Amino acid sequence: MNHRDLVMLTKNYESTIEWLMTNNYIPSYALCSSCDDKEMKLENNKNIKRWRCSKCGQVSSIFKNTILENLKISLSNIIDLIYFWSIDLTQNKSAFETDNICRDTVSKWYHKLSLQTFFIMKETQANKIGGIGHIVEVDESKFSKRKYNIGRLNRSPWIVGGVDIHTGEMFFVEVINRNQHTLRNILLEKVHLGTTIVTDCWNGYLNLESLGYIHLTVNHSENFVDPTTGANTQVIENRWSIFKRKIRSRFITSKSDFSLIFSEFMFKLKFKTHAFIKIMENLNKFN
After folding, report:
1. CA-to-CA distance for 20 and 4, rounded, in angstroms?
2. Is residue 154 within 8 Å of 145, Cβ to Cβ?
3. Which Pfam families does this UniProt record tie to the protein (predicted)?
4. Which domains does the chain have, with CATH numbers?
5. pLDDT tens-digit profile of 19-68?
6. Which DSSP category does 53 fall into?
7. How far apart are the C-alpha atoms of 185 and 53, rounded to whole Å?
């Protein structure tokens, strides 16, 4: 969906609610908790839709238990903001593109949406990548905040990542250290046996053949591409560049903030152009 289509679907409050309910982004019916689950009726109250029980009069928000509950700003503006977040507009650009939303509000919503991705990715079952005849580049990167002049985490994390250069499938795992035991367990969990794995010459990757992998290395102190085998890790390193640009665009002040941005990064890599639809399908509040 492009933004022009979205604007047409959400051109006013009525059409926005219809679009949300038709696509099951919010419930299209509600049951009264006080009247043996009698179905409630949708009514207008000062041009705002809500649920009301015709028997006992109990009312309920149509956004109950979603991140849209208790909105303080225009619904259409929030939908726009979610869309801009999904296509990776910076917070400043989103604030500019959405009318009457201040920078602080945009920041809070970006944080809220990142939190949603944390729970979505936590519930998403990841499949192993690679396989016989496949090449998976594996690398690790440390994300120290001092590098970006925005403070420093006490224990800045390592991210171990891998990408199948044939299918584009990826995995990323946040770890505190990158010792051999940790790296081997990650590979056994994330990569099919028989895969050709390409890494640098870090000791943690020694003897991967004993686990059932074909192992190629490239010595980055000498070459970016091994002159004999052609082995390189340029694809996974490109992924690091993308993630680090995202880190630079956010004010990260804690380990928890980093984890949320990491979840958002994984979410958008996985769902790509469907990120907006996926986040709209998961507006419910996670406990």
Report:
1. 17
2. no
3. DDE_Tnp_IS1595, eIF-5_eIF-2B
4. 1-21+65-287 (3.30.420.10), 27-62 (no CATH)
5. 999 999 999 999 998 988 789 999 999 889 999 999 999 999 999 999 99
6. -
7. 55
Q: How far is CA 30 from CA 24, 39, 135, in A?
A: 13, 6, 50
**How many whole angstroms separate alpha carbon 270 and alpha carbon 233?**
20
Q: How far apart are CA 236 and CA 241, in angstroms?
A: 9
pTM: 0.81
In angstroms, the CA 113 to CA 264 distance is 8
Cα–Cα nearest to 255, from 177, 183, 179, 158: 158
Amino acid of residue 153 = L
* Spatial CB neighbours of 244, under 8 Å, sequence gap ≥ 6: 143
| Mean residue pLDDT across the chain | 89
CA atoms of 156 and 47, how far apart (whole Å): 49
